[in-house]
Amino acid sequence: MTQVGTSADSTGAPPAYIDRPIDGRQELQLQPVQISTAPPSAWTSDPEERRRLGRRAQLLAGASVTYNVIEAVIAISAGLVAGSVALVGFGLDSVVEVSSGLIILWQFRHRLPETRERQALRLLAFSFFALAAYVGFESIRTLITGADPDTSRVGIGLAIASLIVMPLLSWAQRRTGRALGSNAVVADSTQTLLCTYLSAVLLLGLVLNATLGWGWADPIAGLVIAGVAVREGLQAWRGEGCCSPIADSEGSAGHCTDDCCKD
């Protein structure tokens, strides 16, 4: 078998081997292959469109922060009144989500040095760990002492509202982030979606306590929230995956371990 052709064309494109019958034999011939370097179809490269999407991303981040502030105030207040550790933990998680949103918003407007981003992530991790320690301790104490929280209609209403608002906000953030090709914005949408899951856990615990008198459901929901907080804290501390601002700034989206940046 004879090999003919050139190893590459003038553009530097890699060669491809193809079979061609000559005189009853199979001959390998090198043919250039054109490789497209165009960005993914989901991204937009138009400068004006990217500026518009950038403004939208900032508005969505601001909306997320505003809602989480209101959510935190209502949840913590109602939780203290009802003696609900799950409701207080949900409110504290909203405070952490506000911090996360502010970090992402700050990064999006100002290109931060790497060391400053890492320090911000470490502070965020400590916030998650403190949340997990408090909620975990209170949940275990409530289970041991058998203290039953009061019914909180405000908490139930808040959980229902979050189940409606958060998925819509997360969808808008993810769509904008993918159009921009921004891992940070997509990661923010994942954080918002996490709040939806926590809202469902909270609602289940509050409803079971209100309807069936299962007081233990509230601290169990609190333990779930504490577990999620530990996971988020570890991710922030390590700066792993695309779900942290530092990953986007270093161009390390390839290390994403939770598929949050993938279609």
From TrEMBL:
Matches recorded under Gene3D superfamilies: Cation efflux protein transmembrane domain
Xref: InterPro entries: Cation_efflux_TM, Cation_efflux_TMD_sf, Tmem163
This protein's name: Cation efflux protein transmembrane domain-containing protein
Alphabetized GO MF terms: monoatomic cation transmembrane transporter activity
Family: Belongs to the TMEM163 family.
Transmembrane region(s): 59-81, 87-108, 120-140, 152-172, 193-216
Protein source organism: Kribbella capetownensis
GO cellular component: cytoplasmic vesicle; membrane
Residue span, Cation efflux protein transmembrane domain: 127-235
Organism taxonomic ancestry: Bacteria, Bacillati, Actinomycetota, Actinomycetes, Propionibacteriales
Compartments, as annotated in UniProt: Cytoplasmic vesicle, Secretory vesicle, Synaptic vesicle membrane; Early endosome membrane
